[in-house]
Amino acid sequence: MRPPPSGDGSGPGPYARFHDREHHDALGPCLPGGGAGQDERRPEGDAHGPAGQHAELHADVCVIGAGPAGLTLALLLLRSGATVAVAERSRGFTREFRGEILQPGGLRVLDDLGVLAAASGHGAQSHTGFQLVDGRRILLDIDYSRLTGPHNHLLALNQRHLLTELLHACRQHPRFTYLSGHRLTSLTTTRERYTAATTRHAAGHTTVHARVIVGADGRYSQTRRLAGIRHERMDVFDHDVVWFKLRTSGPLPRHVRVHRNAGQAFLVHASHPRTLSVGWTIPHRSWNTLAGQGIEGVKDRIAGALPAHRRLVHDQLDGLGDLTLLDVFAARAGTWTAPGLVLIGDAAHTHSPLGAQGINLALQDAATLHPHLLDVLGTAQGDPRADELLHRYARQRAPAVNSVFRFQTAQAKTMLRTSPLADTVRPVLARLVQHTPLGTHLTHRIAHGRTPVATRTDLFRP
Ligand SMILES: Cc1cc2nc3c(=O)[nH]c(=O)nc-3n(C[C@H](O)[C@H](O)[C@H](O)COP(=O)(O)OP(=O)(O)OC[C@H]3O[C@@H](n4cnc5c(N)ncnc54)[C@H](O)[C@@H]3O)c2cc1C
């Protein structure tokens, strides 16, 4: 993120809680260096980890990061008979303020894996579509019930519940190793190919030797950084987001709504249990000025834009600490593959929350990579065709990801901006989406992606 400057300009402001500090990616080569021997890549200062045991283990695939991308890929591979180790730096899934709106394309992957019902069983909120609202006027209504079922809706599903069920399903497989509280600290190369990942944890270090290392460690990916892969920020979303939740006993909205108001936008949707999740999109670096008005000024501003929720805002936001300023940006890794290594999900391409695409893409990345990785495991050690198979994955997936970047750029311009052009385009777009087959096509694309992804359940072992 671009943290809004604090009073002294050296970091995030003192007002809201601030999530996810800025990480600067090192620029460097994407191919492992070194000659025939082994080469350990450690970030500076990391060589002096805590003393302790050093364990070694072997897996077909080592996945770094137990987010939606990493755990979904792990489960797909396990179902197909591979040996998988997943290293996750945190010890639990209590992650607040993560996107929780799932698109039909992602729901389909989770359903194919048999985890959707269990995850939804913890409580979830179904939505019939997206609406763009200006004052009391609904400018745009993207209705998912126009799509073919069964997944013709959006689902607000707490990531903790989703990840808990994915992990539970992985744990049913004897070929699964879960390294909880393990932070990736170095990658090892052998003959110019990544062959092992070393993690640091409370008891020392663990090295996982694997045919393929998968970086599924999110937008600040350490895998990406250690592999020297560039991460290029994109000018898709030049806003900051302030996030908060409001408990409600009133009727819950059935749509994910974007409320526009004088250059700001509020994303509002119902979450389980009986909560409204609100993302306030503010001009980049404007938070300190807003916060300078104090909590009462901020509350008045929010309530003015969301009159239907005025009471909840005034009753429940007690201080600026109830608001969380979020690190939001769009970016793309310079490459998604290197010999013996592949990046998926946010580690490969990071998206703004607009249109709720990040989890969807992460799940679909996993489903797309699954057969390619099985092909890699089917080659002999050192076979150069393995690299081509990883490239093939990247080539297959790039058009879908690029299409989402283009769509989010257009969305930011038409939904968030206030300009004569945006004001002209918006109603035209609204008519197209609501009343023509192009609208159904567009809705399908938002819901399933440019190319719908099918899970290769035929590759599962009984
Ligand atoms: C405010 C906000 C709202 C959003 N809303 C939505 C939404 O409604 N719908 C949607 O689809 N998307 C949304 N997104 C995007 C979505 O959250 C991400 O795209 C999605 O979580 C990406 O999944 P992932 O598995 O690739 O990465 P992550 O979910 O980031 O998971 C990465 C995992 O790697 C672990 N990790 C990191 N570093 C290391 C390391 N060194 N060693 C070991 N483990 C490590 C992390 O702890 C984490 O568990 C939103 C994003 C933001 C910021």
UniProtKB/TrEMBL annotation:
Annotated spans, Disordered: 1-53
Sorted UniProt keywords: Oxidoreductase
Lineage of the species this protein comes from: Bacteria, Bacillati, Actinomycetota, Actinomycetes, Kitasatosporales
Keyword Nucleotide-binding: no
FAD-binding domain: residues covered: 59-407
Matches recorded under Pfam families: FAD_binding_3
Listed name of the protein: FAD-binding domain-containing protein
Compositionally biased spans, kind Basic and acidic residues: 17-26, 38-47
Keyword Oxidoreductase tagged: yes
